[in-house]
Amino acid sequence: MISCLVIIDVQNGFLTNETNYVPDRIKELLSRKKFDHIVATKYMNHEGSPCYKQLNWTSLVTKESQSLDKYVESISERVFEKDTYSCFTDEFKEYLKKENITDLHFVGIDTDCCVLGSLFDAFDAGYNYKVYLDCCASCGGKKQHDSAVTVMERVFGKQYLL
After folding, report:
1. What does the CA dihedral 49, 136, 126, 104 come to, rounded to 10 degrees?
2. Interval 104-122 mean pLDDT
3. Per DSSP, what are the bridge partners of residue 161?
4. Distance of alpha carbon 85 from alpha carbon 100, whole angstroms
5. Beta-carbon count within 10 A of 132 CB
6. For residue range 44-90, what is the model confidence (pLDDT) as tens digits?
7. Do residues 62 and 79 touch, judged by C-beta distance below 8 A?
8. What span, in angstroms and rounded, lies between the C-alpha atoms of 115 and 108?
9. Within a 10 A sphere around the Cβ of 38, how many other Cβ atoms?
10. 8-38, pLDDT tens digit by residue?
11. pLDDT value at residue 9
12. Is the N or the C terminus of the chain less surrounded, counting Cβ atoms within 10 Å?
């Protein structure tokens, strides 16, 4: 079994008072757990993205806001850009296949959007998965994070949420 830690969207534009502890929690996780691969995703909002077009969400369009947290950038062997909630882009799926990755471990921002969307796709694609909830957060605050956890428990099983 080959494992991959997938760090979802720990970017300057998503690091707020509600989420700014996530990079330190990831660092702490890596001090006690080893993964075969570590990758990151970067959400790239633009005029053609679903959030921009359908939700009229115009944040995270500048290079500075889209930049990864420096620690996350330094530990990631690859960065996958995306403009949707899920990390399962064609490039990401090719990478998983090429590296024979079977186990996906998720951390990041936003629990209720991109982490949840990626988990749905990992489940549907048949990957083994875990979510480290103490390394996840939502810009919408604890209530949004907790709501996502409730959905995850029901849909994916409490035993996969650490």
Report:
1. 110
2. 96
3. 131
4. 23
5. 17
6. 877 888 777 788 877 877 898 888 999 999 999 999 999 999 999 99
7. no
8. 7
9. 19
10. 999 999 899 999 999 999 999 999 999 999 9
11. 96
12. N
- Which CATH number fits the domain that encloses residue 88? 3.40.50.850
| H-type alpha helices, the chain | 22-32, 50-55, 63-66, 70-75, 90-98, 116-125, 142-156
Q: Which of these, 81, 151, 138, lies nearest to 109 by C-alpha position?
A: 138
Rounded CA separation 35/104 (Å): 10
Contact 120, 148 (CB under 8 A): no
Ramachandran assignment for 157, one of left (phi > 0), alpha (psi -120 to 50 degrees), beta (any other) = left
Structural domains of the chain, count:
1
Place of tokens 């064609």: 90
Of 111, 132, 10, nearest in space to 70 by CA = 10
DSSP 69: P
**Contact present, 104 and 122 (Cβ < 8 Å):** yes
Backbone angles phi, psi at 76, to 5 degrees: -90, 125
Is the bond leading into 134 cis (omega within 30 degrees of zero)? no
Dihedral angle sign, alpha carbons of residues 39, 42, 88, 23: positive
Nearest to 122, CA basis, from 158, 86, 161: 86
